[in-house]
Design brief:
43% of the residues lie in helices and 14% in strands. The protein is α/β, with parallel strands linked by helices. It has a seven-stranded mixed sheet with strand order 1-4-2-5-6-7-8, with helices on both faces. Helix 14 links the parallel strand 15 and strand 16. Helix 14 packs parallel to helix 16 and helix 18 runs antiparallel to helix 19. 46% of the residues are buried. The structure holds cobalamin (B12) and iron/sulfur cluster (SF4). The site of cobalamin has 44 residues, from helix 1, strand 6 and helix 4.
Length: 608
Amino acid sequence: MVMGRVMLSVRHPTAAGSARKHFRIVLIKPSHYDDDGYVIRWYRSPMPANSLASVYGLIDDCAQRHILGPTTDIEIVAIDETNTRVRVDRIISDMRANNNFGFVGLVGVQSNQYPRSLHIAKPLREAGIPVIIGGFHVSGMLAMFDKIGPDLQAALDMGITLFAGEAEGRIDEVLCDAAKGALKPIYNYIDDLPALEDAVIPFLPGNSVRKTIGNVTTFDAGRGCPFQCSFCTIINVQGRKSRRRSPDDVERILRKNYEQGIDRFFITDDNFARNKDWEAIFDRIIKLREQHGMDVRFLIQVDTLCHKIPNFVAKAKRAGVTRIFIGLENINPDNLLAAKKRQNKITEYRNMLLAWKAVGIWTYAGYILGFPNDTPESARRDIEIIKKEMPLDVLEFFFLTPLPGSEDHKVLSGKGAPLDPDLNKYDLEHALTPHPNMSKAEWEKLYRDAWAIYYTPSHIETILRRAQVYGINIWRLAQIILWFAQSLTIEKVHPLQGGFVRLKNRHERRPELPVEPVWKFYPRLTWEVIVKHARVAAAAWRMFRIYRRVAAGVRIAYNDQAMTPVTEDETETLELFTHNKSAREAVDHARRIKILTAVGASAAQSNV
Ligand code: B12
Ligand code: SF4
């Protein structure tokens, strides 16, 4: 049941007769509750959490440096609740056997995971075990508000320690305080973000990575993003300055994982294109691949202007990037402007996607529903435009959510706007505020419909046909599309929260809801399992037939509007550019900039 359990006891000579002590740290990356109140947990979760890897790596380093003295070993147990049941009773008895010498760290706690974290913490605190909570909820709240809100106060009242900011360079202090039994109520480093060059690298043992699907692990090559999107928490928690790991450290991360058989990576930087050392990092990876024969491959997150950075796309390809994720967010310029997402230019979308396609890299994009100018009709029409005019592979939908830590959340809270008080729902999958043009029910229906509108059998076929032209592995792509297309309908969760074989325990339910009786819980669970598997099998069969049709047509030339670069006259005809006034204005603006740049360039030339 323990995901990664490592007893780090580097033997140092101890004074004769002195007994070794074990400082026990249990790190838990919590999950959260589904709409029925059960913990979302899988036999295999999608990927390991970099938050857990970062804190694990830091504490592992403390253990190797023996920061608690030569006679005290540091023992780390790491649990990812999305794939491992948290047995609080066992943690309590193990800790008790060790005189509560240690602590439980709730790691990388997002807002939607905060209620679950407090539920895990309650019995631990009652047993006298020190508990520390870190992650985006605590950091985001302390970054945006001077006063402690009721949710953080509830933790402090339970005697839980809060950690805000990043732990690199600070973890020694926390461990030493904990070992002395003198943890402070709050460690607040939110205004003092550490440099990442030479910082301890994130790492998880291979046996924990193997509790996830595939052979993929996560690491951050940098943190921070220069842009200012109002719904974003990252800029307020990790800052707008690019802080990054050195190419040497990236190489160490890759080698350490490669040695334990892990060669696929999700680089979690929210915008790797704005990592100031992207080129040096790519160059190092290219060297590892081309000169040292390391077949490492990557998924990275980038912005919609990345293709304009000289060499970026070409080097990404050589460095083994096979997929990119882009925050497309919306195709209505009014909405993008309202969210201060000024860097997203609809006039660039298609050319950017084609630049990636040209090198055989497939694209995922996030699309947000519920911007102020959206109506159910406009959003449905926008998705149809995307299907017809943009060569995008995987599209995923989110609700516009005022996440704690974002400017939107702060502004709405300041105005006293009605915000749903249940933090468990702050997972980008729920409607949490009133919308000017849609009722809550309409917004929720739009979210459910959006997946069905995009992933129709005929559009899946089009995606695969387009991908085949660019030499993309369509068998693999078909599997990912199956995952994204079916997750919400079959498992009722977003694909990023999904996993392989849902596990449920009768007792792992929100304490506000009753434990269901055996006669009700088990028959329903059995029925659920049967129905789900039947639906997965049916969907997989339909997908296989589409795949087979496309693969059989490999020699037939395929082309469509989305696959051709945008021409000047198309800006007058494409719906993407003409569907409303602000889209037309965006095109006019881009045209004016182009003319001015050309005039400026020829003036500069005539001056030379
Ligand atoms: C990679 C990633 C994922 C991956 C993997 C999960 C992971 N955590 O690695 C996947 C794709 C699975 C994912 C899914 C989701 N994610 Co996500 N994800 C990220 C991303 C891009 C990077 C996470 C990361 O590695 N950060 C770097 C680490 C090092 O930072 P950290 O977690 O804050 O940890 C540091 C400190 O907080 C502190 N610390 C943390 N814990 C502890 C504990 C102790 C004891 C101590 C001392 C210190 C400490 O030290 C750490 C090292 O410095 C972040 C954005 C971001 N830039 O962080 C979003 C982010 C965390 N995700 C977010 C969300 C909403 C989700 C989803 C709910 C989306 C969805 N509906 O599917 C799901 C939830 C799934 C789940 N079970 O976690 C939000 C959370 C916002 C919030 N306020 O709650 C973020 C911030 C993005 C956003 N949109 O704003 N995610
Ligand atoms: S581009 Fe992404 S990471 Fe950067 S501010 Fe916008 S939402 Fe945040």
